[in-house]
Design goal:
This protein is an alpha/beta fold and 299 residues long. The protein is 42% helix and 23% strand. The strands form three sheets. Strands 3, 4, 5, 6, 9, 10 and 11 form a seven-stranded mixed β-sheet that branches. A two-stranded antiparallel ribbon has the order 1-2. A two-stranded parallel ribbon has the order 7-8.
Length: 299
């Protein structure tokens, strides 16, 4: 069965518009050839893709399924062509970069600025999501490079490298007596009520909080939980809880929250930022990863 990209594109536009006339206008063609093209497509597929009636056209169940698969097919073809072009020189084309939300504050602005200066022909497309989703999109080929905080969710077939390290700090309500301390021992927080991230939302952070508190001889007393970073910050700012968060949040000052350094071995109180890519990265990925490493040097 010969299904050209143009024929699939025509089908998808008709499926979106639900109208041959409007679809023809979008495709810069006349309506009769478009109708004939859809009829040829239905003949080749062997099923009816559209129901046609006085009220217009609509996708059949088979058409709905075909539309979803056809869109993925075009996206895969586009990704393959784009990747081939990037492999050619690594200086031009598109690089799809995924990241978790907090990284946009500390790392992305400087990295994007440096990339614009050193790699002016490279178009970096950004996608923000959770560590797990970013890693899975890299595995699937929907992203070329990912920056994540939770390396435990990265599929085994991907390549990882730490390009930045951050201190874990105590996040305290500004009104808290300990907020005025120059530094704290974790044991100082033994009797404090904590707000903890949920395991489904931020498993790496939750694990680290339990690990470092356990090393200090106590289990954090959970006063509240939150599904995302904004919830954690809100509970701390309310004065109800304390928490442990990374120094990256110093770039996001929140009224009512003070961050206090913790005594302890650096490795014990560190959070890492990990780069994730497939085993055969093209030159553009290597160039951006090298640039990130030069900027942040694993610190």
């Amino acid at each position: 069965m010969d299904l050209s990209s143009r024929l699939i594109e025509q089908f998808l536009v008709v499926a979106e518009e639900r109208h041959f006339g409007r679809a023809a206008e979008r495709l810069s063609m006349r309506q009769p050839p478009l109708s004939q093209a859809i009829q040829r497509l239905e003949s080749r597929v062997g099923v009816k893709l559209f129901d046609r009636g006085p009220g217009g056209i609509r996708l059949t169940p088979a058409g709905e399924a075909f539309a979803a698969d056809a869109a993925r097919l075009l996206a895969a073809e586009s990704a393959a062509l784009g990747r081939a072009r990037r492999v050619a020189n690594g200086l031009e084309g598109e690089l799809r970069l995924g990241y978790v939300s907090l990284l946009s504050l500390r790392y992305l602005p400087r990295l994007l600025g440096a990339a614009a200066e050193e790699l002016p022909g490279l178009d970096i497309r950004l996608h923000q999501d959770s560590s797990a989703v970013v890693a899975d999109m890299v595995r699937a080929g929907s992203l070329d490079l990912g920056f994540v905080r939770d390396a435990s969710v990265v599929p085994a077939e991907l390549v990882t490298s730490v390009f930045a390290r951050e201190r874990v700090m105590a996040a305290l309500p500004t009104s808290h007596p300990l907020a005025r301390a120059g530094a704290l021992d974790l044991a100082d927080l033994r009797d404090e009520p904590f707000v903890l991230p949920t395991r489904s939302a931020l498993p790496a952070l939750l694990e680290q909080i339990h690990r470092v508190c356990g090393a200090a001889g106590f289990t954090p007393a959970a006063r509240a939980s939150a599904d995302d970073l904004t919830g954690l910050l809100s509970y701390v700012a309310s004065g109800l809880c304390v928490s442990l968060l990374t120094e990256a949040l110093l770039d996001l000052p929140v009224p009512g929250i003070t961050y206090v350094p913790l005594h302890g071995a650096p490795g014990h109180l560190e959070s890492t930022v990990t780069a994730v890519h497939r085993p055969d990265p093209d030159r553009a990925v290597r160039r951006v990863l090298d640039l990130a490493t030069r900027l942040y040097g694993g610190r």
